[in-house]
TrEMBL record:
Transmembrane helix is among the record's keywords: yes
Keyword Membrane included in the entry's annotation: yes
Pfam families tied to this protein: EamA
Protein name stated in the entry: Uncharacterized membrane protein
Species for this entry: Aquimonas voraii
Amino acid sequence: MPIQFGLGEAFALLSALAWAVGVILYSKLGTWLPPLQLNFIKNALVLGMLAGAVPLVHGLALPDMSAAEIAIAVTSGVIGLALADTLYLKALNQLGAGRMGIIGNLYSPFVIALSFVFLGERLGPLQIVGFVLVSSGVLLVSSKRERDTGGPSVLSGVLLGVLAILLMAVAIVMVKRVLEAQPLVWISLIRMGGALLGLLLIVGLRGELRSLNPRHMRVHWPTLLIAAFVGQFLSTLFWLGGYKYTDAMVAAILNESSSAFIVLLAWLWLREPMDRRRACGIALAMAGVGCMVV
C-alpha cells in the first residue's frame, strides 16, 4: 500500500509539535497574566509576525478574495481565536494541562462529525483504526491517577474546555474551503485580524481596555515571545496548512498527537517522570499516526 504522507500530513504533525512547545510555555505564562490579556497580547505579536511574513511568502499583491471569503476568514478568527482560545486558557488555569489534555480528545470527533456533515469527508477503514489508536494513546498520556473532588471550579472548567474545543472545530471546518482556494499566510493574517477585533470587542464590553496596555502587564517577555513565535505563529501556519493540503478529518486526528509530544517534551525538557502508562500511550499514538498516513 503506498505511503500517503504529503504536505498536509507533515504540516499537521509539525503543528502538533509546535503547539506542544507552546502549551508548556503558556502554562508558565498563565501564572502571570489572566487568560484574556494573555490571548490578546500573544495574538497581537503573531499578527505582526504574519504581517511581516505575507510579503516574503506571497509578495505585495493582494489576494483575489471575495467579500464572502474575507467574512468567513474573519468570523473563523473571532470564533476560533478570540472566543475559543480565551475559553481554553481559562479552562487550562482551572483544570491544569492533564485534564485539558483529556478534554482535548473531543477535538477530532467534533471535526470528524462537522466534516462529515458539511464537507462530505469520509474516513477509510485503516484511518478509523488510526483514529482509535491516536485517541487511546492521547487518553493514556493525558489521564492522571488522582482523586477529583468534582467541585464547582472543576465543573466550570470542564464546560469551558468542551465549549472551547467545539468552537475550535467549528472555526476550522467553516474556513476549510477558503483555505483550499486562497494563500495560506494571507488567510492566517485575516483570521488573526478578526481575532484581535473580537478580543477588543469583548474587552471593551467588559470595560477593561486599560488592562491591555503592556505597561500594566507583569510578564516575562522572552518566554512570551518564544511562546508566541513557536506555539502560535508556527503552530497556526502549520495547523492551517494541514487543513489546506489534506482532509480536515485526517488533519484533526494527526493534530491529536500534540498530547504525546507534550509528554515527551516534559520528560526531555522539564525532567518530568516517564512511566509505563505514558510510554504505552505515546507508542499507541505514534502507531495511530502511522495508520493515518498509509
